[in-house]
Amino acid sequence: MPKALGFSLYLSTFAAQCPALRGPAGTGAPVFLSLHISEEFDDTYCRRAEEVCHFLAAQGFRILADVSVKTVQQFGCRDLAQLAERLQLWALRIDYGLSREEILSLAEKMPIVLNASTTSAEDAAAIAARGVDVFAMHNFYPRPETGLDEDYLLQTTCRLQAAGLKVLAFIPGDAQLRGPVYEGLPTLEAHRNILPSAAFVDLAVRFGMDEIFVADPSLSNTERQRIELFCQENVICVPAALKSGYEHLYDTVFTCRVDSPKWLIRFQESRIYSCKGADVTPENCTARSRGSITIDNVNYGRYTGEIQLIRSERKADPRVNVIGSVPENAQLLLECIRGGQKFMLVRP
Questions:
Q1: 284 is in which domain, residue-wise?
Q2: Which of 29, 242, 262, 282 would disulfide-bridge 4, Cβ 3.0–4.6 Å?
Q3: 278 pLDDT exceeds 60?
Q4: CA nearest to 174, candidates 185, 164, 165
């Protein structure tokens, strides 16, 4: 389970991104920085990159830099190890240009990150056996329709983790998006138009990612706080629009009953209400679409007051009131809430 959200930084937007990196919430988190984005190159590039890296290191961030053999030449260093020392880098993502033996030698000196899509299981196992700390990182995909599909992401991740590597991936942002397409930078195509916090939880729970980075330059405070709550307290925030009279359900931590079936989530704590025989009047007893939040009414006898979150469509029942719904861009969370998982309904 990731312990913190990682950030992606770009020299061209660093001044705007910098304020969000200060303070205890950011300190110690991993930061991804590419050192071979050609459109950022100018006569001051090396100096600016060094200043940014020294600032981040002083703040306590772990800097993961995307590099190639050309990066060494550009900075006038002897090799990548010297470059890492000069820029105070925590880890190097090897993009291209190094042989397997060169990577093995480098892995003995510092953490390295391989390309998850191009690293074979054989190479992964060999490097993991020699390395201090070896990771594999999935790419992010700016162009819509080119992101990874779920089967490929899961299979590739499992293969690399079985070889001894930790695996990293990206989620899109929701504030400032990166050009030139400005349609998010997800690893998984299904995450392109959903809430970043939902994408983060999905990568952590269903795909078992070891570290997760937001690829776009900026994330809203609301989404960042939801991710931090999940990382620190293992509570999933579920955005929901609740009907009048049920606002007291917001910001309360609930537990998914361990015997919840695949088509709905049972709120373990709501049994307190049903045991008391809460007086819930029948109303809005409509068909229950995916994402509906329901409460059993007095027609259900001793089950009155039980609350459920619907994962797959259920027909209308005169004993069940629909009291709210989860927006489509957060419904991926429904597959992440498993038996025993803590979760909380929050305002969209």
A1: 241-346
A2: 29
A3: no
A4: 185
